[in-house]
Amino acid sequence: MITRFEKARILGARTLQLSLGAPPLVRSDEVDPLRIAEREMDLNVIPLTVRRV
Questions:
Q1: pLDDT at position 47, please?
Q2: Lowest CB count within 10 Å: 6, 10, 19, 27, which one?
Q3: What is the pLDDT of residues 1-53, one digit of tens each?
Q4: Is residue 21 part of a domain?
């Protein structure tokens, strides 16, 4: 399980990627990168992992 801080960091990173032109990994009518990133996280398709040291 990821913490709320890890979730915020992942969403922020993915939102930045989307706003810079990365293709979305889910079909959506949304145009807001944050909403798209949240949907991707809900569907578990974000290609980012958490590595704890």
A1: 83
A2: 27
A3: 899 999 999 999 999 999 999 999 999 899 999 999 999 999 999 988 899 99
A4: yes
In a domain, 47, yes or no: no
CATH number for the domain spanning 14: value is: 3.90.940.10
In a domain, 29, yes or no: yes
Q: Which helix (H) or strand (E) holds 4?
A: helix 4-19
The pTM (predicted TM-score) of the whole model is 0.89
Whether 52 is in a domain gets the answer no
Q: Which residues contact 41 (CB under 8 A, 6 or more apart)?
A: 7, 10, 11, 14
Distance CA 20, CA 1 (A): 28
8 Å CB contact between 11 and 4: no
Specify whether the CB–CB gap between 34 and 24 falls below 8 A. Answer: no
